[in-house]
Amino acid sequence: MESVKIIVVGESGCGKTSFVQALLGSPTADPPATLGCSVDVTLYQYAPSVEKQLYFIELWDISGSSCYEDIRKMFYYNVDGIVFVYSLADGKSSERAVNWIVEVLTRCEKISKQPILFDREQYAIEEKPLLVVGTNFDRKDDVLHHNIKQPVVSNFKSYFDSESETVLLNCRLRIIPRSISENQIHRFFDRVIEKKFRLQRLFLYSPIVGTPSTAKTLLKKHRPPAEIIYRR
After folding, report:
1. How far is 51 from 135, CA to CA, in rounded Å?
2. Number of domains forming the structure of the chain
3. Residue 30: inside a domain, yes or no?
4. What per-residue confidence (pLDDT) applies to 154?
5. Across 153-217, where does the E strand assignment appear?
6. Helix (H, G, I), strand (E, B) or coil at 122
7. Is residue 160, in this structure, part of any structural domain at all?
8. Domain assignment of residue 140, given as a range
9. Residue 152 and residue 168: Cα distance in Å, rounded?
10. What GO terms are given for molecular function (predicted)?
11. Contact, 172 vs 29, CB < 8 A?
12. What's the pLDDT tens digit per position in 102-115?
């Protein structure tokens, strides 16, 4: 069965693990800190497909602690989708949103403590489906909500993924089936699957390319640079 790799990134303590556990149906009020990286796998049915094919969704919950700045980059290879998590109760966790995306795309050993500029054109070929998750929705106030949500969304739509959406959650509770939040998450999963598999099939089996064996030769001849993280 095919699988996709989705990394979950954000500042330490912003609610990444709580989001993953709520998504898997086992919410925890106060989960322990993640040591390096924790991986969970869930089965997902790709609804837009006529065959309703099943896929494994790998959720890589990566620690945001400064203790792991030097080793985080090893988890950023062969990424198919990105979930950026920030806390509605902590403005700092959203201010460095672009820094985290740059860290993932460039595999920097360390990231600046100050906001940095992001050249979308430079990384256009590496665009990845992205979901923005705001946690602690039960603790937010209206002022904080309006000051944080819109800048985070506009950052990603301007610099990274025009289809990115923001999901606001109380991760102490299960995500309600068929709710708006669940639908947003499922749309993100669908985009991840489509981006990874449809583009490859269009290239490898296009009538213009030829037979699969010919396509394999052309793929080797025109192989993208090693820095492109969507290759398999």
Report:
1. 34
2. 1
3. yes
4. 59
5. 165-168
6. helix
7. yes
8. 3-221
9. 12
10. GTP binding
11. yes
12. 788 776 444 444 54
pTM of the model: 0.74
Residue closest to 12 by CA, chosen among 96, 77, 98: 96
CA distance 187 to 173: 21
- Residue type, position 77, single letter: Y
Establish if 111 belongs to a structural domain. yes
Beta strands across the sheet bearing 54-62: 37-45, 54-62, 3-9, 81-87, 130-135, 165-168
> Quick check: 145 and 151 in contact, CB under 8 A?
no
Question: How far is it, in rounded angstroms, from Cα 48 to Cα 91?
Answer: 37
Q: Helix, strand or coil for residue 6?
A: strand
In a domain, 59, yes or no: yes
How far apart, in whole angstroms, are the C-alpha atoms of residue 183 and residue 67? 35
CATH of the domain at 50: 3.40.50.300
- H/E stretch holding 57 reads strand 54-62
Contacts of residue 59, Cβ cutoff 8 Å, sequence gap at least 6? 6, 8, 20, 23, 24, 39, 40, 41, 42, 83
Q: Residue 196, class by beta-carbon neighbours within 10 Å (0-12 exposed, 13-18 middle, 19+ buried)? A: buried
Q: How far apart are CA 12 and CA 5, in angstroms?
A: 21
135-166 residue pLDDT tens: 877 665 544 554 445 555 555 555 556 677 78
The number of residues in the chain equals 232
| Burial class (CB within 10 angstroms; exposed 0-12, middle 13-18, buried 19+) of 141 | exposed
Among candidate residues 15, 23, 8, the one with its CA nearest the CA of residue 175: 23
